[in-house]
Amino acid sequence: MQLDIGNALDSAATPGVSTDALDRLDDAVADAHETIAAGMSNARFGYASLNLPETTSATGIERAVDPIDADAVLTVGIGGSALGAKTITAALGEANHYLLDNVDPEATNRLLDALDFDSTAINVVSKSGTTAETLANFLVVRDAYEAAGVDWTERTVVTTGESGPLADLAAEEELPKLAVPDGVPGRFSALSAVGLVAPAILGYDIEAVLDGGREARDSLTGSIDDCPAYAYGALAVALERRGVHTNAFMPYAEALEPFAEWFAQLWAESLGKDGQGQTPARALGATDQHSQLQLYRAGRHDTMVTLVHPTARDDREIPAVDVEGLAYLGDATLGDLLDAEFEATEASLAAADKPSIRVELDRVDERGIGDLLVSFEAACIMAGELMGVETFTQPAVEWGKNAARGLLGGEETAEAAAVRNKHNYLIE
Ligand SMILES: O=P(O)(O)OC[C@H]1O[C@H](O)[C@H](O)[C@@H](O)[C@@H]1O
């Protein structure tokens, strides 16, 4: 991954974010890098995530899924236990990866009504093994396979922690079970079995995904000047300190649309703490030029736009047509048009003095997605160090999980009691 940060420096929105300011930040980055590197070598909680390209065994995962013969995969998981797999398979252009993360019964019914159970593997993922949405969806899916007379036990792989209700279910049915590695929070676990089982079942080269991750990991150095990942994290913090509280993540590749979703969880859950953080907004180029760009260019000075741009892609000619005013299209390809839109957006933001960062990758393929995932994880960890927050926890999210469990008749929790006592103000 490469960065061009020119448009984020010295903009009217962010006076003070200059090359000098970044130079001053470089010492803090060097110190934070030492903490991160020490955390990696001691496999400390959270920091161990950056070791996954080394510690994950692609052959171990491939061996575990080998007996499963399937053309499609249904992943049952939520948050960090779903978005990694979704991001990787989408980046590789896979259409036969389905996801049950939410528990909207109408959407679930529609998905299960259309699914070919015989050819679809079930990939159940939960680090804790207790998440209500995931467990409920797994029970529903098992039931649907049974109702269709299809043996779900022959097609299911479970990825979870050592113990817990999901581990018990897996043991009871003697299902193949892979581990969520120690020291790795869910949203940082894409390059483990959590994110790689689905692409492995679908026949992708998951070793190449890990290779891309290794490249990103090996490029972590203690200076902004030669480490794009850290430069991104440091710059986002410098901007956040000056009131840039929204980070609009806008890839110019459909295949990276779920990457923006993955980034949103990473950025929000890791950095939204102690009154700090940036709100991640999801956008897609060029589509959202025709929707959100108005706000980013002419709205409040509180947004940075992250423009992600692959430098190579498969392309398609635009057919020439003899109609006045359309000749210019006949000389171009769809890729040329998308690139021109990208350049125009970047220039238009700069002309309005709005900060943007250009992230480039060679191609959206196995290596490219591995590189991007690890680079943004490292960027996030760097940002967390500079902000002084606990990057690897998510207490605010746990609050809601505890409340929902208590409300459904699980063990009584203080959070559920707070929901029961909440003050309503109804207007009917
Ligand atoms: O993997 P699980 O334990 O099922 O957790 C799934 C998700 O649950 C919560 O929402 C956490 O905040 C997320 O970080 C996590 O990824």
UniProtKB/TrEMBL annotation:
It holds the Pfam family PGI. Gene3D superfamilies: Glucose-6-phosphate isomerase like protein, domain 1. It is found in: Cytoplasm. GO terms for molecular function: carbohydrate derivative binding; glucose-6-phosphate isomerase activity; monosaccharide binding. Pathway: Carbohydrate biosynthesis; gluconeogenesis; Carbohydrate degradation; glycolysis; D-glyceraldehyde 3-phosphate and glycerone phosphate from D-glucose: step 2/4. Keywords: Cytoplasm, Gluconeogenesis, Glycolysis, Isomerase. The active site is at E269, H301, K401. The keyword Isomerase applies. Catalyzes the reversible isomerization of glucose-6-phosphate to fructose-6-phosphate. This is Probable glucose-6-phosphate isomerase. It comes from Halosegnis rubeus.
